[in-house]
Design goal:
Strand content: under 5%
Number of strands: 0
Number of domains: 1
Structural class: mainly alpha
Largest sheet: none
Helix content: over 70%
Shape: extended
Number of helices: 4
Mean pLDDT: 87
Radius of gyration: 17 Å
């Protein structure tokens, strides 16, 4: 493999990695989390799952941060993001 292909592959990998970690840190304040051990792994998994749900929700044009806040404030909006029907 030549150096140009290697460099391009590295940049592509790290741009995805940095984007994910940046979002987790900015939106979920992950770097400030002081949970240790298995709890840290579980919390990280839950944050990643929540980020995926928030990013994939196509019901509006709001930012992921705004969607997260709306989910905390509005139970009906949370159920929409989770894909749960509130109808009886």
């Amino acid at each position: 493999m030549d150096i140009d292909k290697f460099a391009k592959g590295c940049r592509a990998h790290w741009s995805i990695e940095n984007s994910l970690h940046w979002r987790l840190d900015v939106i979920f304040n992950e770097d400030q989390c002081r949970i240790n051990g298995t709890g840290a792994i579980n919390s990280s998994s839950m944050r990643r799952m929540a980020l995926t749900l928030l990013k994939n929700y196509k019901g509006d044009k709001e930012s992921v941060r705004t969607r997260r806040l709306r989910c905390a404030w509005d139970e009906h909006y949370l159920f929409k993001v989770l894909g749960i029907s509130m109808e009886k």
